[in-house]
């Protein structure tokens, strides 16, 4: 199983073991990276506009969104600083670049949009508002900055004439891409998914009246549920596969995307419907789920150098990924995950089913046909996600390709050379270089 390598030595960081092998950076990959950079910048503007320039439609939902964004921003910023420390990068230098970017983006945002909504009354209201808006931009800039670094390394690797520089930039690219993917997955499950649950819960609380929310809100809910969250999980997995020098072709990425899209949609819809009418019971259930996941991670995931193997930081680290395990399961250590998936998805299926039954039998829901249809769609999404996951491991998992390659080698069939080796370059041997 592929996983992010947290156990790195601070003095000698080499998280990948490519053994002199690199892959060519295709133009398609460059296009994807440029598109990701654009979406990261767009997300900064969108979040600022949504939080501080639109009228408040629901005060409770607005406060919950602010708190979720603040806490997730603090966590991702701490992880970003720690990653820079491990990478031998001076956090002060990186933060200087981030702050300059913050000032530039803040000026552009204030120029494009109307003045931000004053959050406090009195003479200090504008000062507090400017401070809060700047803090939220500060929390978003590091992730965008890392994506831009990945793109720069990819461009330099693609067009470098010197093979040593090309290998160097390739290693930097895959390392930076894995780090950016980790921060992206944290932001996805710590900020994106909880905010989406709050938004959808408000819709159910209003008796499913979509006319009371703006078209921008409706589009953002649909895009986040069907595209953004599963795409973030797919990009994270793709970056880890690239780091481990495994193939992750487009058909495999599509299957992986559909797997996560179905399971995440079913999970978020199930939590949202009960949160709308039973917020206390839902909060207690989610808290118990988080606590169990945190304790299991604490006792099964060994301390690593990422946080200097301190017990307190170990528990905090596991508690953060315990939140991730509310929505989805990600690999933390090496090993087979069959029974892990059986237990995790079995518990999630039970929680989802109980949530849907509670909502379906309450007096606030609409007609019987509407209730049954919603329950059927939610369950079909979950079961479909499980079937797609099985299809992924049976037909599309990179291990299957390795097994087929070894069988071809044993049978004496010729296998096209897929790897560029430094020694071949030194001996002036020409080889084919595949695309990433």
Q: C-alpha Rg, in Å? A: 23 Å
Question: What is the topology, as strand order, of the major beta sheet?
Answer: 1-2
Multimeric status of the protein: single chain
What would you call the structural class?
Answer: mainly alpha
Major sheet, described briefly? 2 strands, antiparallel
Silhouette: globular
Distance between the termini: 20 Å
Mean pLDDT: 78
Q: H/E order of the elements? A: EHHHHHHHHHHHHEH
Number of helical regions: 13
**What ranges have pLDDT less than 50 throughout 5 or more consecutive residues?**
9-20, 412-436
How much β-strand is present in the residues? under 5%
The portion of residues assigned to helices is: over 70%
Count all strands and give the number. Answer: 2
Keywords: Cell membrane, Membrane, Transmembrane, Transmembrane helix
Family: Belongs to the XK family.
Protein name: XK-related protein
Subcellular location: Cell membrane; Membrane
Structural write-up:
With 436 residues, the protein is mainly alpha-helical. The chain has a two-stranded antiparallel ribbon with strand order 1-2. Mean pLDDT is 78; it is low at 9-20 and 412-436. The protein has a domain at 1-246. The protein has helices spanning 27-52, 59-86, 91-112, 125-159, 163-205, 215-243, 250-275, 279-300, 311-327, 338-360, 368-396, 398-411, 422-426, and strands at residues 21-22, 420-421. It is globular.
In short:
This protein has a domain at 1-246.
Write the layout of secondary structure elements.
Elements: E1 21-22, H1 27-52, H2 59-86, H3 91-112, H4 125-159, H5 163-205, H6 215-243, H7 250-275, H8 279-300, H9 311-327, H10 338-360, H11 368-396, H12 398-411, E2 420-421, H13 422-426
Antiparallel strand pairs: 1-2
